[in-house]
Design a protein that fits this description.
This protein has about 325 residues and is of the alpha+beta class. Among the domains are: about 80-115 and about 155-270, no CATH class; about 270-325, no CATH class. It is about 25% helix and about 30% strand. It has helices at about 10-20, 35-45, 130-145, 170-175, 175-180, 185-195, 200-205, 215-220, 230-240, 265-270; strands spanning about 5, 55-60, 65-75, 85-95, 100-110, 115-125, 155-160, 210, 240-245, 255-260, 270, 275, 285-290, 295-305, 310, 325-330. It has a 16-stranded mixed β-sheet that branches. The longest helix is centred in the middle third of the chain and has 16 residues, at about 130-145.
Length: about 325
């Protein structure tokens, strides 16, 4: 039975393995072991309530304890430094004498998304992506947000990986960022994971970039998600998030944005008094979470919701008389 709970120091080897197996880089996590261990320590402090700026990391575990997936939440993106994106916009070029009026697409370096809650650092074993483990890992973060609502913003964003080539290089970066950084995409992306996005403001031009000057292949790739992110994009859309006009400044991938209170999963969450074991009932699958901070746990169980209690036909480690959040696995995409 899968469980989602906060990542701890003992999960470091498993997290390294997951990152190495992931065909897409986790640009929010460093690849160096010492830096990754430090990032886990910071996450642990965040769960313990000692650091309200920490990126929280959650691990998906099998019955045997193996960690087979990871995901994260930044409660307030750019809490200690600006959170940079490119905003897709337009400039009007007109000549009354020549009777020419043109709208030219441009990219503006922006930190307007600073302070919003960000979903990040998602990866799992490829064989699990088509199973309910995907839903558990992605939506467990929303269960955590619902249980700690005062610690998160009103709006949520999720940056999706953009178009990369077979060598892991971004075609957007080759035509924009590399000209100013002098570093290839993988190197620059890792430096950003280590040192934060302030290096963007230090090296990228603050002036608008006319996309008409970029190669056609790059223009077509702007705000396009990598094919491997298809299921994540579909999930975000089902939750009610929409593609915004902001893109990642490194790979040009899209940023999805929406109000937390309007997300389908958030609206479907219910408070119950606990989980009670009872066999022989007609049941459905539920995401169930208990605990605060470092004690948070989220699981998938078979059960029936009756009044103020979830009657579970699944053997779990959940407590009978502990305040519990529940959410049906199967959602209507537009809840009344």
């Amino acid at each position: 039975m899968w469980q989602v709970k906060p990542v701890t120091a003992q999960d470091l080897p498993a997290l390294e393995s997951l990152m190495n197996l992931n065909p897409l880089r986790l640009s929010t996590l460093p690849t160096e072991r010492d830096q990754l261990a430090e990032r886990i320590a910071v996450a642990e402090s965040g769960f313990a309530g000692l650091d309200d700026k920490a990126t929280l990391l959650f691990g998906l575990h099998e019955d045997n304890g193996n960690m087979v997936g990871v995901c994260g939440i930044q409660p307030y993106a750019g809490a200690d430094e600006p959170f940079y994106s490119y905003r897709i916009d337009e400039l009007v070029h007109a000549s009354r004498h020549l009777k020419i009026h043109q709208r030219q697409p441009v990219l503006y370096l922006s930190h307007e998304l600073t302070g919003l809650t960000s979903l990040c650092s998602f990866t799992m074993l490829e064989k699990l992506r088509s199973t309910a483990a995907f839903d558990l890992l992605t939506r467990s973060r929303l269960m955590y947000i619902a249980a700690h609502r005062e610690h998160f913003a009103d709006e949520l964003i999720c940056e999706i990986q953009g178009i990369w080539d077979d060598e892991g290089q971004s075609i957007f970066w080759k035509s924009v960022g590399e000209l100013f950084f002098g570093l290839d995409f993988i190197t620059a992306d890792n430096q950003c994971a280590l040192h934060g996005k302030t290096i963007i403001a230090e090296l990228l031009p603050p002036y608008p970039i006319y996309t008409t000057l970029l190669p056609e292949a790059v223009r077509k790739a702007l705000a396009e998600p990598h094919p491997r992110t298809e299921r994540t994009v579909k999930w975000l859309q089902q939750e009610g998030l929409a593609k915004s006009r902001y893109i990642d400044p490194f790979d040009g991938g899209p940023t999805y944005r929406g109000e937390i209170c309007k997300m389908n999963s958030i609206r479907a969450i219910r408070n119950v008094s606990g989980v009670h074991q009872q066999d022989g009932l007609d049941s459905q699958q539920w995401l169930v979470s208990q605990g605060q901070g470092t004690d948070f746990i989220c699981m998938l169980v078979e059960g029936t919701l009756i009044d103020d209690m979830l009657l579970s036909s699944t053997q779990t480690i959940l407590s009978d008389n502990t305040p519990t959040l529940v959410m049906p696995l199967e959602l209507q995409h537009d809840i009344d």
